[in-house]
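name: query_chain
kind: protein
chains: 1
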Amino acid sequence: MHKAHRTGRCWLALSLLLLLLPVSGAGQEQLADPYRIEAAFLRNFAHYVIWPDSAFRNSEAPWCVAVLGRDPFGDVLETTFKGRTEQGRSFVIFRADKPEELPPCQIVFVAHRNATKRNAALAALKGKPVLTVGDAPGFLREGGVIRFQVSDRVRMSINLDQARAASLNIPTRMLEVASEVMENDTVHKVRER
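structure:
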């Protein structure tokens, strides 16, 4: 196995292992700020999820990471993405209240607490090469791609149907560490935590 490929696989395993670790003890400050953890995972998704070429304006276009709705992150996103690049692309952060205010983005955290607004946002983004991420309880059923739950542990659930509809390729390793995977409109428990 090629050394760079082996190293990449090790980093993937290590990064995704964080999903399985408890957020307790010395990490209590992280528990108080689950958005710091979520921001780190948003950055890692740019490394592991595969987007179609059409998701970018050109080969130099930056990653656009957006928050749709009331921003729960504060300056955490800027801190997390500052000076980072992935696949030769830098990151820009964008915030909007409505989907029509968004530029073309690759990752959108849907922060709307109101289910009607959240559903409207997800409907507007459906079928576009956009990784939609959120933490609302019904996020997968509403049409989101990845749902976070940060409590005593970090849990990630994945809607494989929506990922495919958005032409996104979710690596098997991410599916293996997910708590739930939705496929063919059925939620399968992958890990009991």
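note: The chain is about 35% helix and 20% strand.
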